[in-house]
Recover the amino acids of this structure.
């Protein structure tokens, strides 16, 4: 179901087919609306804007003003969903998921020095999205530093389709394009081996939504009294979280794989119209008062 939601959301938010065919960016009224996940404004098919791009656009204005509109957007979306956005609604997250399914290389959940590298997304948020957008100048305008120098989603969904459809743009591609293309290729290679390397180590949007994971409306609830400590959820977790960290950790993207793997169905989504359950939950709940024979397994 998650893959279907990811595909549907990506198609709906990047459904301007005319743009892909003719290399023209959609500039209609919907572009003033932000979607929750990374969704490059410059993608010829994008119908709405990326929240990180919108935040940088406000920071790039002359002088300085607090971007209350985007702060409010992040607070509302984060309070409702947290990093559920990353797991279910981000097009570039879908790309990394599909790349990781390619049956090449020995798969890993994390890179070496994970506990240090995971701080990278907070550094990107502070120094590229924040300070970089406020302090870096190109010509007479401030620079959207994250979009310009790092974002692989913008290269994949924006730059490559535009260059493919416009001869004049291909002739203007220079060192900056090839720098970003190199970053994209590195992320693509790592994604085949490591689960979502960009999300885990570099994404500033994940850094923002991760702050809301502990108290967002959508959670994965753990019914500890029914847990038989089989370790199935921890084994299934694509980012190697313990059962006590699931949902609460800033690294949890609420993908739901732990729910599917739990034999006792003691993990479930809550805050989604009464709770999203996998098959067999209602039946297993009827056995709550049975003697604790399961502990002997």
């Amino acid at each position: 179901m998650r893959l279907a939601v990811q595909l549907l959301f990506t198609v709906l938010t990047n459904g301007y087919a005319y743009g892909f065919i003719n290399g023209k960016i959609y500039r209609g009224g919907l572009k003033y609306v932000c979607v929750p996940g990374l969704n490059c404004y410059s993608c010829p098919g994008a119908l709405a804007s990326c929240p990180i791009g919108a935040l940088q656009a406000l920071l790039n204005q002359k002088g300085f003003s607090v971007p209350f509109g985007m702060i409010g957007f992040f607070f509302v979306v984060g309070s409702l969903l947290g990093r559920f956005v990353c797991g279910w609604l981000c097009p570039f997250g879908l790309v990394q998921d599909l790349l990781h399914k390619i049956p090449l290389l020995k798969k890993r959940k994390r890179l070496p020095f994970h506990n240090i590298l995971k701080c990278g997304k907070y550094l990107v948020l502070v120094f590229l999205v924040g300070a970089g957008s406020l302090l870096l100048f190109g010509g007479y305008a401030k620079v959207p530093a994250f979009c310009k120098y790092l974002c692989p989603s913008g290269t994949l969904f924006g730059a490559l389709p535009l260059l493919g459809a416009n001869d004049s743009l291909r002739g203007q591609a220079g060192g900056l394009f090839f720098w970003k293309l190199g970053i994209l290729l590195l992320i693509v290679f790592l994604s085949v081996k490591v689960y979502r390397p960009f999300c885990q180590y570099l994404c500033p949007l994940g850094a923002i939504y991760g702050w809301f994971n502990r108290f967002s409306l959508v959670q994965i609830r753990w019914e500890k009294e029914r847990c038989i400590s089989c370790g199935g959820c921890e084994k299934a977790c694509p980012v190697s979280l313990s059962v006590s960290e699931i949902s609460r950790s800033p690294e949890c993207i609420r993908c739901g794989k732990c729910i599917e793997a739990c034999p006792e169905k003691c993990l479930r989504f809550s805050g989604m119209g009464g709770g999203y359950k996998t098959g067999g939950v209602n039946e297993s709940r009827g056995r709550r008062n049975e003697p604790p024979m399961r502990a002997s397994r």
